Amino acid sequence: MDNMRERFVSVTSRALDEDPRLALVLAEITMDGFRPSRQRHPERVINVGIREQLLIGVGGGLALTGLRPIMHTFASFLVERPFEQIKLDFGHQGTGGVLVSANASYDWPAGGFTHMAPGDVALLDTLEGWTVHVPGHPDEAEALLRHAYAAGDDKVYVRLSQQSNAAPRPVDGVGLRTVREGGPGAPVVVAVGPLLDNVLAATQGLDVTVLYATTVRPFDDAALRGAVARGTADVVLVEPYLAGTSTAAASEALSEVPHRILGLGVGRSELRRFGTMDEHTAAHGLDPHCLRRRIDAFTRPPARG
């Protein structure tokens, strides 16, 4: 099976052939995969070199001409390094485009902390009007990329990862989908993108409702409210980026319901050993064993004395 980044190349190459409004801006990363597209569409496939601020600036300029720009590099270089350009060239200018990242939070540990971006979604949360897709499988990535490319002049971030669930789920670019339904009053666990399989393994045998999110912004308030029981609600958010990124959004959705929320995700402490992607997942407590312990401890009824 191909990975999400490889699927991005194939889907985008076809989309460039099909839609003359699309333009692709690269900063060296993944350039080899797009050489055939650059030969076919030299005016719409642009490589700016290792200049990430220019990557966003060129994309913003293309948007002002009426094109729909797709801008791509590693997440840390796409969102964090050129954040001012994103804020000004798209937010302030009122233009739209598609940011497509690779390597997510810690997919390439040997790249060091410069190549890790667990805070990307939280950073975009400081800006208005961004849709954020977090696919959990290459097939989902394809569907969400096509959705983003056809989304008029909206501002869209598609967060691709080397991590993947074993099988795809239907996605519509909107909100939460029920994967496992617990009994009346059962706690709700929201699994985001490539962490769904870990969450399902961790909650096997527990009386919980599992919701799956591949579109996290805008947050699906109605689906979360519909999943919790009347009265108090316990909600666990399991996100493949900075822990607690969506706790405020979930709390606002449940503002009229007594609730508790536990936000699980990537910790703030830097892991200074390279290791492997799976070792980083475990170190952040996002493997099935750690998730089981943390979810069970939060949702278990208190013992009576």
UniProtKB/TrEMBL annotation:
SMART domains, sorted: Transket_pyr
Gene3D superfamilies in the record: 3.40.50.920, 3.40.50.970
InterPro entries: PDH/Transketolase (IPR051157), THDP-binding (IPR029061), Transketo_C/PFOR_II (IPR009014), Transketolase-like_Pyr-bd (IPR005475)
Pfam families per record: Transket_pyr
Domain Transketolase-like pyrimidine-binding: 2-168
SUPFAM superfamilies: Thiamin diphosphate-binding fold (THDP-binding), TK C-terminal domain-like
Record-linked CDD domains: TPP_PYR_DXS_TK_like
Gene Ontology molecular function terms on file: magnesium ion binding
Name of this protein: Transketolase
Organism placement in taxonomy: Bacteria, Bacillati, Actinomycetota, Actinomycetes, Kitasatosporales
